[in-house]
Amino acid sequence: MAKSRAKRAKEEKKGWRDQLAALKNVPLFLQLIWRTSPQLTLTNVVLRILQAALPTAILYVGKLIIDEVLLLLEGSGDTTFLWQMVALEFGLALASDLLSRGISLVDGLLTDLISNTTSVEIMRHAATLDLYQFEDADFYDKLERARQSTSRRSILLSQLLAQFQSLITLLVLGVSVIAFNPWLILLLVLAVLPSFIQENYFNQQKYSLTRSWTPERRELDYLRFIGASDVTAKEVKIFGLANFITDRFEELSMKYYYLNRNLSIRRAGWGAFFGGISSLTYYGAYVLIILQTINGQISVGTLTFLAGAFRRMQQGLQTILSRVATIGENALYLQDLFDFLKIRPGIADRSDAIPFPAKIKKGWVFENVSFRYPGAEKFAIEDLSFELPAGTKLALVGENGAGKTTLVKLLARLYEPTSGRILLDGRDLKEYRLAELRDNVGVIFQDFFRYQLTARENIAVGRIEELEEAARIEESAVKSLAAEVIDGLPEKYDQLLGRRFAGAMDLSGGQWQKIALARAYMRDAQLLILDEPTSALDARAEYEVFQRFTELISGKSAVLISHRFSTVRMADVILFLEFGKRLEMGSHEELIELGGRYAELFNLQARGYQ
Ligand SMILES: Nc1ncnc2c1ncn2[C@@H]1O[C@H](COP(=O)(O)OP(=O)(O)OP(=O)(O)O)[C@@H](O)[C@H]1O
């Protein structure tokens, strides 16, 4: 059962300790930045070091200018020196502007590259994971968080680099202020510490809220998608679902808005209070410096220098401290990325995995195989034993939910049996190298995907390495009867299919099935499985397609799933499943002879066609 939101929010509450622990990801992240582009990282650091020294230099030149002006007023100053200093300050101001622009340019480029690199890493990693992981809600939340934190990572990148720069600026300013008045540093800490603690508290609250809302945000995205998409538009109109979907979206999104609003209001209130305290200490320091100037302890130039330096240090320290909090917070999101990358697939090669047979000799044996989907109560396949000798065409029949597709997934090792074994040429399927096994088992599922790509690419997905092999693609299309469909398209094989992109043309259900079937011919695997990809064809067309298929792949093993007995009868062997168990098995003639369920259903359908 889904956990309640309040309970999840509590679980997701992250404290100081978690934030500190998350900081351990920062070095890993820095490595990632460096790996992405050493040149850009180095340029960024150099530019920031230069920029960091400028505020102190500008303030100090300002002090020299004021003192020189006062000396001139008293009649003892040096005009040439004064104008030299003015020119220097102008030069420094110009340099500061140029450096800022350079830094934001390099930051932007690095951010884009990091975002690309991590997206690619997430996609590559997701591809290695198991099918059942994709069917698990917690897994999706992790994937979603890893994906969504892309912008967080970009912010973290700029923040880390800016933090480095601010620290250097603070150091340079601090050294010069201590030289004049060490007490100012103490006042400075008093001014910023309370507001740092407050900032940090609210950052944690915000993170907990966002994180605990991951499933709801996923639901919001889903509602947004089904509310307005090419795939659902038809049903939304016919069933009049628009209000149902938008109301649900509105209710959920407003709930989040109110929670977020309350947090933002409290944050703004406390922020204003501590901001006031900060200003108070600044003016305290200001009074101290003015008194020193009146007493003749420091010059007017030094007064402006110190007042300016104190203000900059106060702002700088405040930024540094609040950045520590946001860096900690964003590092928590980094944790999501690294956590996701750490997920390992359950179905993987053993260290001593053996090569897949170049030519299967004996075939497959199911030995008391049972399988239960993760979290399911009932077995989808239960204590199933049968043989599929190499070169045999096996048809699977059974009612909806009998376990036919599940059996196919077990054969392709998309899942592994909960108990029992599947043997291939006498060895457990788990012993073979997974990539080779997948290479040698081709499945066209009933819910095959309609890629919004060209007709050529839609066929080539059967063996994408051969995308450039036009002759092979066309030959597969001829075999599956997709060639006739493609001939009728304006752009032929280069015709974009679907509805999503400009210039695309959509096909009928049956036409799509012919395209999908061509993938099986591209695959050229030792075991080909057709899991009802022909349901949109009429009975005669389906019969022809299957007959063609069995002829064209003669010598190879095949598993065919169909609800039409006229098709099923052409298979060498028929396995009748009921509730995941073997009910009957044999050739069409044998099963008719047996006079059991198969015979009953066959006669029922045959009568329907008479
Ligand atoms: N991903 C899944 N997670 C949990 N249970 C599942 C999953 N897929 C299927 N099932 C359950 O396993 C059982 C067998 O389903 P399966 O898809 O293998 O049936 P099928 O014989 O192919 O049905 P159909 O003729 O409708 O395609 C069903 O009870 C179904 O509810």
Automatic annotation (TrEMBL):
<keyword id="KW-0472">Membrane</keyword>
<dbReference type="GO" id="GO:0005886">
    <property type="term" value="C:plasma membrane"/>
</dbReference>
<dbReference type="InterPro" id="IPR003439">
    <property type="entry name" value="ABC_transporter-like_ATP-bd"/>
</dbReference>
<dbReference type="InterPro" id="IPR017871">
    <property type="entry name" value="ABC_transporter-like_CS"/>
</dbReference>
<keyword id="KW-1003">Cell membrane</keyword>
<keyword id="KW-0812">Transmembrane</keyword>
<keyword id="KW-1133">Transmembrane helix</keyword>
<dbReference type="GO" id="GO:0015421">
    <property type="term" value="F:ABC-type oligopeptide transporter activity"/>
</dbReference>
<protein>
    <submittedName>
        <fullName>ATP-binding cassette, subfamily B</fullName>
    </submittedName>
</protein>
<feature type="domain" description="ABC transporter">
    <location>
        <begin position="364"/>
        <end position="604"/>
    </location>
</feature>
<dbReference type="GO" id="GO:0005524">
    <property type="term" value="F:ATP binding"/>
</dbReference>
<dbReference type="InterPro" id="IPR011527">
    <property type="entry name" value="ABC1_TM_dom"/>
</dbReference>
<dbReference type="InterPro" id="IPR027417">
    <property type="entry name" value="P-loop_NTPase"/>
</dbReference>
<feature type="transmembrane region" description="Helical">
    <location>
        <begin position="183"/>
        <end position="202"/>
    </location>
</feature>
<feature type="transmembrane region" description="Helical">
    <location>
        <begin position="270"/>
        <end position="291"/>
    </location>
</feature>
<dbReference type="InterPro" id="IPR003593">
    <property type="entry name" value="AAA+_ATPase"/>
</dbReference>
<dbReference type="GO" id="GO:0016887">
    <property type="term" value="F:ATP hydrolysis activity"/>
</dbReference>
<keyword id="KW-0067">ATP-binding</keyword>
<dbReference type="Pfam" id="PF00005">
    <property type="entry name" value="ABC_tran"/>
</dbReference>
<dbReference type="InterPro" id="IPR036640">
    <property type="entry name" value="ABC1_TM_sf"/>
</dbReference>
<keyword id="KW-0813">Transport</keyword>
<dbReference type="InterPro" id="IPR039421">
    <property type="entry name" value="Type_1_exporter"/>
</dbReference>
<feature type="transmembrane region" description="Helical">
    <location>
        <begin position="155"/>
        <end position="177"/>
    </location>
</feature>
<keyword id="KW-0547">Nucleotide-binding</keyword>
<feature type="domain" description="ABC transmembrane type-1">
    <location>
        <begin position="45"/>
        <end position="329"/>
    </location>
</feature>
